[in-house]
Amino acid sequence: MNAATQKLSLLGEAGLIEALLDQPDPPLEGARGTAVIAHPHPLFGGTMHNKVVQTLARAFVQCGWRAVRFNFRGVGASAGVYDEGRGELADMLAVVAQTAPADQPLALAGFSFGAFVTSHALAQTWADRPSAKVVLVGTAASRFAVAALPTEAHEAALVVHGEQDDTVPLSSVMDWARPQSLPVTVIPGGEHFFHGQLPLLKSLVMRHLRA
Q: For residue 175, how far is the Cα from the chain centroid?
């Protein structure tokens, strides 16, 4: 993302996890916390270099957070093979454990398949370590069983979806959100990868992080 991006080699149950760390520039005394960001579907070209994932990282960094992106198992230099979300959840939890100090605020974020994995990471970590901020973008609710968010997490959560997403129909996300009374922010005319609308997405995320 920038010249200061730091490469990380982490350890997961499948072996090496390749990751990148971006920090506020100049580094702030005691960053606001660490955000761990998950990428889209590994079998359809999803990596930590995805433009939406990079946009999320930039938003967090500009709001004073450390941002950690990582490649799921089988992607890039990360060891292992695609595991339909189960192993990928273990990957994300391993990244949280190794990069986000327990005495600092934690944020979880994800795009598409990554939002699905993030929902389950949130469900698993919430009782012991509630996330200060949660950002789910293009949540893959039509393709995977996205976990319901803890009721107490709703205030911390931003769910964003494109009105004209033809990969994950908006209706599927509304069907997931409706029983939870969970608000969804809809970007008019937006499609799955938010082409031409990444600056708007970034501003929405930054507004949420600063609230």
A: 21
Q: How many CB atoms lie within 10 A of CB 166?
A: 9
Partnered with residue 176 across adjacent β-strands are none
User: Tens digit of pLDDT for each residue in 53-81?
Assistant: 999 999 999 999 999 999 999 999 999 99
The DSSP letter of residue 104 is S
CB 91 within 8 A of CB 98: no
CA–CA separation, 62 and 122 (whole Å):
23
DSSP bridge pairs for 162: 187
Which residue type, as a one-letter code, is found at position 61?
Answer: V
User: Which domains are assigned to the chain?
Assistant: 6-210 (3.40.50.1820)
Task: Give the CA radius of gyration of the chain.
Answer: 15
Whole-prediction pTM value?
0.97
- Cβ contacts of residue 78 below 8 Å, gap of 6+? 12, 14, 15, 16, 17, 18, 70, 71, 72, 91
